[in-house]
Amino acid sequence: MTELRAGVIGLGEIGGGVAVSMARRRRIPSVFDVRPDAAASLDGIPGQSDSIADLVGDSDVVLIAVVTADQVRDVLVGSGGLLAAAKPGLIVVVLSTVSIADVREFEQLCADAGVTLLDCGVTNGDKAAEHGIVAMIGGPDEVVEKARPVLDNFAKQVVHAGPVGAGMTTKIARNLIQYGWWAVVDEAANLAVANGVSLDTLLSVMREADTDGRQPLRLLDVRAAGITVPPDYVERAGALADKDLDAAAALGETTGVSTPLAAACKPLMRDVYTGHRE
Q: Is residue 21 part of a domain?
């Protein structure tokens, strides 16, 4: 089997790290960035192609790692864009986090040019150069398998989430969980400090109460296992949640700490336990 040739467009933290990770596994990618010196500091990368067209000519799989949907669109169909130079059979992998509507648009643009698009949400981007990325892929089984040697070269884990759009959906859902955690931690930390409890104390309690670190994922475990929460448990748990969230809101009021998440969570908790929302 002929070794797949890879190209990377966009050499920021993720794209540059992806290129280095592949190079360390002896698949030296062609690279391109609008900044002419972007590849200068990338270990194992000899230099960048003169144009996107040149990179496409040297690649079987092209990874796009720019920031915005507009930049992806420009890479695909802008002046000197990828699709004008692409030969049928090329695989394009979009690593940029974009909307599902954008993914559908890019999929059609690629299909019209005889090119297959895979959407690839990534996480742990700061560890890209150390082969630390988790890649969430959406696309046809046979194309994902064809591209897998390249994907494996830059990702420590490749999760084929489903058809086109599924990779980005998984990334978006994962990001929602992450940002939700951060917002809740911020609100709780503010509440604790305002009432004389140090962050070290709160942190030690959280670590001891959840030694395996899985508590935030318990609900996903239950849902993934297909477990139905009994109605009587939902009511008991909902009543406890009402009481505890009311206590958080009241404590915030006494010390002038805003607790919008406590207020927002209260009417949702019974639906959270059942997995249903009107």
A: yes
Structure-token match 């008991």, residue found: 236
Shared domain for 130 and 233, answered yes or no, is no
Residues forming a β-bridge with 245: none
Residue with tokens 């318990």: 218
Distance of alpha carbon 167 from the chain centroid: 8
User: Looking at the structure, do residues 175 and 225 belong to the same domain, yes or no?
Assistant: yes
Domain identity same for 196 and 137? no
151 vs 156: CA distance, rounded Å:
9
Note down the domain range covering 109: 6-163
pTM: 0.89
**Token output for 158:** 């490749």
In a domain, 177, yes or no: yes
Question: Which structure tokens are listed for 26?
Answer: 């002896």
Radius of gyration of the chain, Cα coordinates, nearest whole angstrom? 23
Q: What digits encode the pLDDT tens for the residues 10-33?
A: 999 999 999 999 999 999 999 999
pLDDT digits (tens, 9 = 90+) for 179-237: 999 999 999 999 999 999 999 999 999 999 988 878 888 888 888 899 888 999 999 99
* Catalytic residue list: 171
Domain co-membership, 72 together with 141: yes
Decide if 216 contacts 181 (C-beta within 8 A). Answer: yes
